[in-house]
Amino acid sequence: MLQLHSSLIDFQGQGLMFLGPSGIGKTTQAELWNRYRDALIINGDIVFVQEKEDCFLGWGTPWHGSSPYCENASVPVKALVVLKQAPENSIRELTGFEKVTAVSNSVFYPQWLENGMELCLETLDHLLTRLPVYELRCRPDEEAVKLTEETIFH
C-alpha cells in the first residue's frame, strides 16, 4: 500500500487522484468535479493506494489536511492527475521518467519500517506501469473538468 499526498474522487465508480504540492488546487479540482459532475470526494489530502490483483484501490484516510473531506470508502483508481496552475487549460499523458518524477514527489516513503522503502518502490513501480498519469495545467473552472473527463473517460 502507498500513501500519497493527493485528493481522491469517485466518478461513476472510477477513482481519479489529483496530486501536487500543498496549495496547488487538489481539493479545488475535487470540489469542481463534485459541483459539475456529482463526483464523491473521498479525501482531499491523504490517500492510501492498495495494490490488488486486478486494480489499484484508492482509500480515504482519516487525515484530510485543510480540506473537510475524509470518507471511509474506496474506489478502483482509473488515473492519476498531476496538477499545475496555468492561465489556459491543457492536459497530456506523461511517459517514462517524467511520470516517475511527477508522482514520486507526492509519495510518503515509510523509512520507519524495515524494508519499507523497497516495498514502497516496488508498489510504486507497479502503479506507474499499470495506470496512466496525466499532467493537467489548468485554471479552477468547469472547462478543466470537461477536458480531463474527455481525455480520461472517453
UniProtKB/TrEMBL annotation:
Protein name (Swiss-Prot/TrEMBL): HPr kinase/phosphorylase C-terminal domain-containing protein
Species annotation: Candidatus Scatomonas pullistercoris
Domain of life according to the entry: Bacteria
Family matches, as Gene3D superfamilies: P-loop containing nucleotide triphosphate hydrolases
InterPro entries recorded: P-loop_NTPase
